[in-house]
TrEMBL record:
It is an enzyme of class 2 (transferase). Pathway: Cofactor biosynthesis; molybdopterin biosynthesis. SMART domains: MoCF_biosynth. This is Molybdopterin molybdenumtransferase.
Amino acid sequence: MSDCFETRETLLEVGDMLAHIKAAAPAPVGVERVPLMQAVDRILAEPLVATLDLPRYTASAMDGIAFAHEGHHCFRLAGEALAGHPFKAVVASGEAVAITTGAPLPAGCDTVVMIEEIVVSGERVELLKPDSVRRGQNVRHAGEEITIGDRVFEAGTLLGPAQLGMAASLGLAYIDVHRRPRVAIFSSGDELRRAGDDTTSSLFDANTFSLAACLKRWGAEVVMTDILPDRLDETMAHLSSASRQADLIITSGGVSAGQADLVRDAIQQLGQVTSWRVAMRPGKPMAFGHIQQVPFFGLPGNPVAALVTLMQFVQPLFRQLSGWRHWMPVKWHALCKQPLKGRHGRLDLLRGRYHVDSRGVISVSVLQEQGSHRLSSLYDANCLIELPAELAACDAGTPVTIQPLGELI
């Protein structure tokens, strides 16, 4: 059992928190075989090794005529080769066949001239620019892109449109991917109600919905969502049940120093908290640990802080659980358009809006409203501006690092 809740004044550096999370993250979740049509945005579980050549045969890259390059200017048209109906005879010297893009190159041919550069008169074909013709032009050779035995994709590859198209080209109907991590998400507090409940004295729970929406975009299967009451026995029962159903448990609220913040007490009895309170704003009251070997994050209750800590700390572990190898967050450099102020010794993540001008220069402005309870400030923003712990302020025109919000807005 961890005693880290007792050292409440100690703030963990952001880099140290990330290192703890990376070291403690379990292996990717299990593997399943899915139809190729259902594999978009899934993570490849095994290397994909080619069992076919691509192209599968030597073919024409153009509509035109195919022939043997022997210096002839005129040819007798011997037939045609279509993509689905190849020309099966051998093309003799001085002969040519009409050919379409993708059609197998007939035996006896090594060159293709596009249709715009020939003149056809009956069975006679003449080249318009014979001196410009090169042997082998406009020909796609078998195996020039992929050969049998090539490792086309490594395990951990995100399967997007191009990757799925390649897999289909290699004849795959099914593909092995990592299972979607199962996630349980809880908000905490008797003051919360679900949207739709008839209430005038309580608050509607927003965090469960926003956190779940973001995790689903990342590929999660959300298996449990609920509100944890301000009763220790019921909170423990919910979290214990989640540890038997989920690969990752997330709570928001309940891990600060308030009298009714029972999540931390429940975790102390059910598992272990290894990291607590991070030197970052928003997001200081955050915990990381395990419940029955299942990773646990206790996020702040303020809605902006909950989403920002999800992006900064939960996302790296979730990507690792998903099997995504070598994932890195997207960060850009921008010129700040106004002075920035933070607090020395803490990473400030300021909500801002970036703009890319006609020269490709990125500039960024900070939003006036920065309260972590103002969810509107997050969708009014399109990035987070990093003000490092060692820098309490910076002048207008200073280069800064920004994190595009992308999947959060």
